[in-house]
Amino acid sequence: MDAADSQAEGATKALEQLCATYWYPLYAYVRRTGRPADEARDLTQEFFARVLEKKILKVADQERGKFRTFLLTALKNFLAKEHEKAGRQKRGGGATHLSLDFQDAEGRYLHEPSHEQAPDLLFEREWAKALLQRVLLRLREEFVAAGQQERFDGLCPHLVEPEESASYAETAARLGLSEGAVKTAMHRLRARYRDLYREEIALLVGGPNEVEAEIQHLFRTLEG
């Protein structure tokens, strides 16, 4: 395999990872537009098949905008075209599909807190949540690679819980550490989490100058 082929393969794998991370927000968007689960499943699968075939995202690098916005706009255009040709052509013929758990996705969708929320707002919120989960996964993978999965599993709940000395003491006892060591470990864990969060966002926006604005936007989305 030459350098060009290797680079192309790496780009394809990176795109597949992005799709695997952020597909649910798009599925939720399609469902919220009023389409039934089976139709939303087929449309989402076909959309990502086209993404991976580079029929939709081939201009993404040229536009260099927010990947979040670009992808949602691409989905809206795709849905509009699919609506126009509905009944004239069967979807999904021969396309390469991602392996996506639509049963789990539908269960998640049915438990969304507000079915009155507009499709765009639901997409934004689920995108922000998917990003947080992606960062958490990367952080966990680092600990596992270092042989510290047990430590990560013990410390991870404190990323979202209030800093209470009692809970720190319990964690210290479980991990065989001092409470001070747990506090130090949590300080480092949060710092690394922030670094990974910024790294992930940098992959999804047009340039370094857009990272902070995207962070603030996603925080507002989660708070709303």
Q: Catalogue the unreliable spans.
A: none
Q: Calculate the terminal CA-CA distance, rounded to whole Å.
A: 49 Å
Instruction: Tell me what portion of residues adopts beta-strand conformation.
Output: under 5%
**Inertia-based shape:** elongated
**Total number of beta strands:** 0
The count of helical stretches stands at 10
- Secondary structure class reads mainly alpha
What characterizes the major β-sheet?
none
- From the alpha carbons, calculate the radius of gyration and give it in angstroms: 20 Å
Task: Supply the number of structural domains.
Answer: 2
Mean pLDDT: 84
Distinctive features:
224 residues; mainly alpha; 71% helix; single chain
How would you describe what is shown here?
- The protein is mostly helical and 224 residues long.
- It has two domains: 1-112, no CATH class; 119-224, no CATH class.
- The chain is built from ten helices and no strands.
- It has helices spanning 3-32, 37-52, 60-63, 67-84, 102-110, 119-145, 149-155, 165-175, 179-202, 211-223.
- Helix 1 runs antiparallel to helix 2, helix 6 (119-145) packs across helix 9 and helix 8 (165-175) packs across helix 9.
Topology:
Blueprint lengths: L2 H30 L4 H16 L7 H4 L3 H18 L17 H9 L8 H27 L3 H7 L9 H11 L3 H24 L8 H13 L1
Helix pairs in contact: 1-2, 1-6, 6-7, 6-9, 6-10, 8-9
